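quick one before i forget lol
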Amino acid sequence: MNKKINWHRIILITGIVALIVGAIDPLEGSVVIAAGSVLVTLATFLMRYQHWKILLLSLIMIVIGVFFLFYLSSLGGFGGNSSLSWWWGALILPYPAGWLLAIVLLIVRAVKKNKNK
């Protein structure tokens, strides 16, 4: 009756759920997506998943993009009536690129896992 709890799997599933739920509203959910990315990267590192370094790159991209998202927002945004041009928005691009990279890697991992069964 003493079943060992697989914490790595719980952390991974929690991170995946956070990545998906945060995508419902990418602006307000950016902190949730960043936290989910941390959890997914941590779990894949602990599980010795072969592509954990790419997920670490994805985490870094997400954190950089979210940082600039909040920074530019604190300056009043960009484009339109703001003093910053639309080109400042390019600093936010690592955020969606990192999220997409993480989702694609998780899908690839799931497909490979199903093929092995």
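fyi Residues 7-116 form one domain.
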